[in-house]
Amino acid sequence: MTLPAPAPVYYTRRLRAYLVDLWERREFIWFLAMGNFKARNASTAFGLFWWVLNPLLLSFVYYLVFGLIWSSDRDILYLMAGMFVFHFTAQALTGGANAVLGNTKLLANLRFPRIILPIANLLESAMGFVVSLGLLLVLGGAIEGHLPGVEFLLLLVAIPLQFLFNLGLACLTARLAVPFRDVNNFIPYLNRIWLYLSPIIWPLSLLETASMDGLARFATYNPMFSIISVYRTVLLGYEFDPVALSTFAIWAVATGVIGIAVFIKYEGNIVRYL
Amino acid sequence: MNRPAILVENLSVRFRQFVDKKPTLRKALARRQLRETAYVEALNDVSFRVEQGEAFGIVGRNGAGKSTLLRCLAGTLRPNSGKVVVNGKTSTLLQLGVGFNPELSGRRNIYLGGLAAGLRKHEIDALFDEIVQYAELEDAIDRSVKTYSSGMFARLAFSISMHLEPDVLLLDEVLAVGDQAFREKSMNTMKEVLERSGTIVFVSHSLQSVADFCDRAMWLERGSVVAIGEAGEIVEKYKASAESRTQ
Fold first, then answer.
1. Interchain CB contact of B191 with A (< 8 Å)
2. Cα separation, A84 vs A93, whole angstroms
3. pLDDT class for A8, splitting at 50, 70, 90?
4. Residue B18's pLDDT is what?
5. How many folded domains does chain A comprise?
6. What pLDDT, in 10s, does the model give residues B81-102?
7. Gap between the Cα atoms of B130 and B136, Å rounded
8. What CATH number should be reported for the domain whose range is B1-89+167-247?
9. Which residues 119-148 of chain B have a CB within 8 Å of chain A?
10. Contact with chain B for residue A2, Cβ under 8 A
11. Which residue in the set B16, B71, B108 is minimally distant from A108, CB to CB?
């Protein structure tokens, strides 16, 4: 009887082998993401409809608070577009660590590229995000009569870029939160601050006020600033800003590469901290 | 002579233990670390080999390091020092229902569990009917797993692991579940694995089943090997020591 060559049972850090392994596990990633997507609301009466209902309710709440009470001229679609895009990234920050820490059984028992867990988690929230984008497109057509033309293709760049950006963030938070769970407690506050620093509940015109000069420049460095503007081109017909797109591309690639590298280097230690 | 199925040399695993002694911030600053740390030697210089087609038992008290050892063999825990080599496809059954999502149907969970364990989807497609049949689930396969009895759950999990056709099977105290009939059935399946020169590492507190089922056994005590030898002998020695302790 011939046996395969002896292999060390735990991961060597060779990137190529790691990526091959990851590719061979693609069906697992998909099933994991789809499983969670379906299971999330499996016991509810509305079931999968919650994936539409959740963003709807969320925007309704924000509309109540910021739209009606402040009675400003900002329209609901501006707010919703920003909210959904932001939410996709905010979910990655909270979900990244939980995807790892919440799957102790898998981690302790089976050997697989650990990055599968944050990727599957992101895929799940990406599905929710796509649903909410669809909702926005429908509402945009209904309320404003705006339908995207060629700009629609921008989504094919924006979504993968944001996915990469999110993956980097999820990996970084997971890396930090595994030995230092306190990180998880900070994230909601971090998200809140980031939300207020992004042009979501305040209008872009705010930046043009003279007294806001310093802040305006600072605000445009925010990666959320550039990516939201790309999405608004598609969803609301705002003018396309190539600088915003390229700025975000740099953010996404840098965050993605650093986050993934840090995570892979660390992942062999995860089981010790469960 | 063939290559051993499992070769472990000078394996040591240390865990950091968080001592819960009210670490005040002032003390922490004085020591320049946030938590007091002490090290626990979970496995200390463990060496053994298991040949192909062999059933190898591991006995020892709670906390002796049995589960830690299995995690090292499964490749999920990186040891502090030492070498672990496992030849062939490994299937682990250290816990039941790994990868399962209890909200989803048994059908869906067969895919989840199988994919988690390393099968491809088309392989599961081919094995699907057999897995269901072996688990004796019939129509329940389309119900969500959270409605299953613990026996049904265990049968489904065990059935998936068995259909992976592993060369090396790692079992941790999981056969205590299920009724008598299923236990006999699973024992038979394990014997079949051995017959096609698969290897089984078997951790159990049921000394009788270790003595009956295993060829050789190892006795662990506080992370160190006390004895390795013919299963019946090791179990006798271990029993004698356990009895002298209770007196």
1. no
2. 15
3. very low
4. 61
5. 1
6. 999 999 888 888 888 888 898 8
7. 10
8. 3.40.50.300
9. 120-121, 144
10. no
11. B71
